[in-house]
Specification:
206 residues, 10 strands, mainly beta, 6-stranded mixed beta sheet, single chain, Jelly Rolls, 1 helix
Length: 206
């Protein structure tokens, strides 16, 4: 599925392409139970300003049903770089089943307090909040955000109910790019100021 950005809010009048955009990708598809092949959802982003160079990124995820401790997910950028979002939250040697929440309505951000791996859940209830991805999103910093993004989600164990990927969204901020014309004009003004100051400097008498 594809979604084209048609409008972007500029965040700085001093730079060309400083922008932030949020794009959503509706899916509404079952995540196959007990199948590592999982579900891949593609979403295309285009029109990001500033050459599309990523400075900051967050991802929001909406999954209903299922057993959260069975789930695994990663995000792949247009460049092919990937970040692991979570891998069977709560699974440890002492707890092979993981956390028993049912459904996720979470935002992933590097500024989150912790990952989903060790954030306790209430069995049978939807889990929400803001959490870190296992692999930081700073991996994507400096890359071009325009192109096809892929979210992969898998249910790695049978039982626990049917999980459904409802939708996901990306919030991307791009780095401001100085306008060459303005940079040149600013340089001319600075040089002119230096020259003017030199011309007004009094000559010392001997």
């Amino acid at each position: 599925m594809k979604l084209t950005i048609t409008s972007i809010a500029l965040t700085s009048f001093m730079a060309a392409g400083a922008a932030r955009a949020n794009v959503s990708f509706p899916v509404n598809a079952d995540i196959p139970q007990g199948n590592p092949v999982g579900l891949s959802s593609q979403g295309t982003v285009s029109g990001l300003a500033g050459g599309g160079i990523i400075s900051h990124l967050t991802l929001s995820l909406d999954i209903s049903g299922g057993y959260n401790g069975d789930l695994y997910a990663f995000l792949e950028a247009p460049s092919g770089a990937t970040t692991l979002l979570f891998n069977q939250p709560g699974v440890t040697d002492s707890n092979p089943f993981g956390f028993g929440g049912s459904g996720l309505k979470v935002t992933f951000a590097d500024a989150g307090a912790s990952t989903l791996q060790n954030a306790p859940e209430t069995d049978g209830f939807l889990f929400s909040g803001t959490y870190q991805p296992v692999t930081p999103f700073s991996t994507f910093k400096g890359q071009n955000g325009n192109g096809q993004w892929t979210l992969f989600v898998a249910d790695l164990a049978d039982g626990g109910g049917q999980p459904v990927l409802n939708q996901w969204s990306l919030d991307i901020s791009t780095a401001p790019v100085p306008e060459p014309g303005r940079a040149y004009a600013l340089g001319v003004l600075v040089l002119a100021g230096v020259a003017w100051g030199s011309a007004r400097r009094p000559v010392a008498s001997h």
